[in-house]
Structure formats: C-alpha cells, structure tokens
Design brief:
Layout (H helix, E strand, L loop, with lengths): L2 H5 L4 H22 L5 H14 L1 H10 L5 H15 L6 H18 L5 H10 L9 H5 L1 H6 L6 H10 L4 H15 L1
C-alpha cells in the first residue's frame, strides 16, 4: 500500500472529529427545531438549519481532509432524526445528500474555499427528508401531531400545499447555485 493510500484512510482522530462536530451540529439543529412549534418557523426551518447550522459545519470542514467524513456526518444526522421521532425518510435522503456533498468537497481536494461553501449549501438538504412525511404521508403526519392543537394543524396545512415541497427544493438549489 502506498503512503498516499494509507493517508486517505479514516483514523480514530478523524472519527472523533466527526463525532464532536456532529454532536455540536445536532444540538444546533434541535434548538432550531424547537422553533418549529410556531407554524411559520416550521416552514423556515430548513433555511435556518442551512444558515445557523452552517457555522459549526464550516468549522467541521476545516477538519475534513479525508474522504467519507462528510458522508458519515450526514448519515448520522439522518439516523439521529429517525431516533428522535421522525420517520425513516431522513436516512436515505441524508445518504444521498451526504454523497453529493462529499463529491462537491472532494472536487476541491478538501482545501478549496469555493467547494467548502458549495458543500455547506448542499449538506443541509438532508433536512428535507424530515419534510417528506408532511407531503407524502400527510394524514399520518397530522394524526401524530393532534396534541399540538387544531389551530396549529390548520396553520401548517395552509402554509404547506403539496407544491410547497418542490418550492423548498428549488429554492435550496437556486441558493446553492448563487454561491
């Protein structure tokens, strides 16, 4: 095995960095998620995750020097969303967005500021997996939230017509392209 090949393998220190920054990022995301109890903030949540969560994520990117670290963080976020009460849907979305973010950052050889900024734009798309049940399993989604009250449910229904998911995704893609 060549020296370069062994230098690209993840080591314990790399995994510790992934764990530390994922924990920080998760705490930020969960704090932001609490604002989702206000219907309009539920709509703005994916943008807030991208902006406010972008701070610890960019710090994390300064530690990423090897393939796989961004993907691992994305997968852990998907699993954590499942464990904290979301459906299984964030897991495959986080894998897909993690792969894309990994490829974007790798294209800059894990050093380019431009690729880091683009990666920070792509990475938070994992959070769109949390919204899939709102659009694909609408009745079940609101049945699970009856404790929030009918006024909350009515407000969220008004704010999230079926076409809204495509608006969310296209808005994120346009935001990424503008970087």
């Amino acid at each position: 095995m060549s020296k370069q090949e062994s230098g690209n393998k993840l080591k314990g220190r790399d995994l510790i960095n992934v764990g530390i920054y994922t924990a920080i990022y998760f705490v930020v995301v969960m704090a932001l998620a609490m604002t989702g109890l206000i219907p309009i903030f539920l709509i703005l949540l994916s943008s807030m995750i991208g902006i406010i969560g972008g701070i610890p994520f960019m710090l994390f990117l300064t530690k990423v020097k090897k393939p796989g670290m961004v993907l691992i963080m994305s997968l852990i976020m998907g699993i954590l969303m499942f464990v904290t009460g979301m459906t299984w849907m964030p897991i495959p979305v986080s894998i897909l967005t993690g792969i894309i973010a990994e490829l974007v950052y790798r294209s800059g050889d894990y050093k380019s500021m431009r690729s880091a900024i683009l990666t920070a734009g792509v990475f938070p798309l994992w959070s769109c997996g949390n919204y899939l049940p709102l659009f694909l399993q609408r009745e079940q989604y609101f049945a699970d939230r009856t404790s929030y009250g009918q006024e909350y449910i009515d407000a969220v229904v008004r704010l999230t017509p079926n076409w809204m998911f495509f608006f969310w995704m296209s808005r994120r893609v346009v935001w990424i392209m503008c970087k």
